[in-house]
Specification:
Blueprint (H helix, E strand, L loop, with lengths): L2 E6 L1 H4 L8 E4 L3 H14 L2 E7 H4 L3 H5 L8 E5 L8 H14 L9
Parallel strand pairs: 1-2, 1-3, 3-4
Amino acid sequence: MYKIGIIGERDSVLGFMALGFSVHEAADVGEAEKLLHTLVKSGEYAVIFIVENYAVKLEEDIAKYKDLPLPAITVIPGVMGGNGYGMANIKTAVERAVGADILFKND
């Protein structure tokens, strides 16, 4: 059975332990980068969540894995909130999968 992992700073990821996620604390971006590559190469993960503040800086590393069937790497906001990067990533993925922008806002 595949695992669900999460990478981020302690305050952002600890709560996910109660949901059965494989929690990986990263003190800085360098540590998050190493964890990301380790988790992907293990072949044990179906989904890896990474907090936005690290994902922004690891965009090139994450892009290397976007065409793999597994794991799906998803960006989520951290405890400080989101900056829109995660939603922009989801929008791009949906456009790529569907062929059109189906996510829109009613202003």
